[in-house]
Amino acid sequence: MKISLNWLNKYVAIHAETTEIAHALTMLGFEVEGVEQTGLAPMENLVVGEVLTRDKHPNADRLSVSMVRIAPDSEGKQIVCGAQNYKAGDKVLVALPDAVLPGNFKIKVSKIRGVESNGMMCSARELGLGQDHDGIMILQADAAVGTPGHEALAQRDTVFDLEITPNRPDALCHYGIARELGAWFDEPVGYPKILTHSPAIDEAPAPEILESVTVEAPIDCPLYTAHLIAGVKIGPSPTWIKARLEAIGLRSINNVVDATNFVLHELGQPLHAFDAKKISGRKLVIRHAREGEKLVTLDEKERVLAPGMLVIADAEKPLVVAGIMGGANAEVDATTTDLVLEAACFRPISTRRTSKKLGLASDSSYRFERGVDPSGVLDGARRAVDLIIELAGGTLVGPLFKCGSEPVTLKEIAITPGFVRERAGYDIPDDEIRGALEALELRIEVRADNADGGPVTWLVSIPSFRGDLDRPIDLVEEVIRIHGCERIPAADVAATALPQADDPVAEFNRAASRYLAGQHFHECVNYSMRSAAEVAQWTSADAAKTLALANPFTEEQSHLRPTLVHGLLDNLRLNQDRGTDAARLFECGRTFRDLGGKMVECISVGFVVRLGAAGAGWLKRGTADFYTAKNHLSILASVAGVDLGGLAVARVDATGSGWQAGHSAVFGGIANGFDAECGLLDLARTRALGIEGPVLAGIVSATPATLESGTSRSRYKPFSLLPSALRDLALVVDAATPSETVRREVQKAARAASAGKFDVDGVRVFDVYAGKGLPEGKKSLAFSLSYRAPDRTLTDDEVSAAFNAAQVALEAAGHSIRK
Length: 819
Prior knowledge:
By secondary structure, the chain is α+β, with helices and mostly antiparallel strands. Helix content is 27%, strand content 27%. It is built from 21 helices and 39 strands. The strands form 11 sheets. It has a 7-stranded mixed β-sheet with strand order 27-30-31-35-34-33-32, sandwiched between helices. α5 (239-247) packs across α6, α6 (255-267) packs antiparallel against α9 and α20 packs across α21. The longest helix is centred in the C-terminal third of the chain and has 17 residues, at 796-812. The chain starts with a strand and ends with a strand. The mean pLDDT is 90.
């Protein structure tokens, strides 16, 4: 938002340098993004002139030859001009020969269509003062001939470009900033004088202007007012109001529209002026749009309205998108004579929703979205009426149309000076605390001391324009702002050390990254949003609905990702297309899973390996396979504090899961806080992406709660220097039974049989057989069992006893031992 210093000085006298004002604004909480000097700088050979005569050019229909006096006692200089808006007796700005105008345009004596011209009468655009180039600048009649141009205009200004936080809509106007600076510099602030009093509500209506106003959506429009002004004359605005608006980057339209824009930037109250004769039925209805209604807004674009969008309509059609922008079908133009001036209060969420749906924003919507002061609606309207009558003439006629009332916003907060000092952490005298609050127009009522000698209580009344003040601590912040953060005394800072160096999630990500980087993987970072089509490939339709964003930026980022695989495949393809050797990639990031219709956020680590992508070399390396991925997965699980061998495992047999059926597996389940997947990715999908060769992948996912409870620092366990004793065992099982399931049962039985007297170091599959000698649908799994004690060499008898007991237990559980 742009703020003019000249404009501010109409409400508060600021006797400070520009840098000091910028510093004050920053300390008050308004970031200064830039400072610009506007207006006319001192310029040689630019003076005030008086037009003595104006005659037609002998050789050109659209040119005039004028005599212009440029000094009090001098004769006139002959100047040729193409403007049509001046006459003899007007005071104008004259650029004499050798003057250099903005854009390095040098004026010199010249002949125009055969007639000598000794200078140029200037327009606003030629002087860099605005965009008006329809005619030359006409000065006030009392401007002294020969006065330097910059002194005659007195338009030199300083403009601050401020960033206002969303919780401070009261500061989105010049008076709001003046109030803040007045409190900072301890200067009185004067509210703009309002001369107009609204007519009575029950006054006889003026049916030729407006008959009725009806609000059909009182929740979205709690207050709506309309003033009637008859007999206005539309024309250009005077120089002073043009200068105010152009200083902050607005273009002058006409005297009525400029008056409403002026009040918006002066008091923060948006307004809208209707041409009364364009209101069908002489009725205004504040309602929600109907299906299929359209409106051409003032930016000359047709907007398709939707039900729920608030509009201001007449008896036939919408005229305004409420709080955002007017329509071209009721705008004020040169033929307008009677006005209906709207001032209202609209619900912020309604304005914000409509603005986003239409992709339409304006100065009005910017303020209504953040909350307009409901108590300032009528004051803003009356101020605009004053200006319109001053600039365009006309008469205010009755009645005042007023629907609804100001929402109750007045609040009182009880506070004590001691509370302010305690929360501030340093001593601030009572009078300075009170002065800071009252400078911001917060009224204070001092309650008497308690009978027991307790502290004095202040009851602070919060005005309607400060909706951001709700609690006593908010008032402490206001005191510190105005008292000055720079006045906080220096003090030692006491910091308590955290009980642990880092949180478990960060430790897990760091350990996983360190391990995979050590295995020659390259780390990637991708967005956590993916397209609907990709998410549907990995999850069910119900899960995809759970992961869909309510308001996505693009179709390619419409859902939260359920897996890291899609982003890694994009990276893999990019590296392949660019001919790089990076075919082993990993990512640590957050994924999102559906669990019974609820979204669960997971901490995930995923990796991919493009098989067959090894570069040429003298030694051929072994090809990675499912067990390579499983080994990586097991180590990553251990980093998370989970034993992969202790999780339920299931082979992926179904297509459509993202994995290649029969070549991948799933461990655990996210419902229990942890799961892992590894194997080959679906060959058809990787081929469709243009990736050459199979892709091996692995993913570990855990909930934050699992990491917090499962991760722990690794502890050293001494290994035995004594030899182990080996025994072999073969079981006949169903061909469809996973070997890992059987291995776990064998390990459980062996450990139970050893009764804690010695360890079962490991149980490993070393042979799988199916065929001759075995029933159809069966297979033989051969396991090697390793027994070891930490303190002695085991004897054959004790190992055999434990081994035989394990076999008995397995047979009792229904397993068939192959002899």
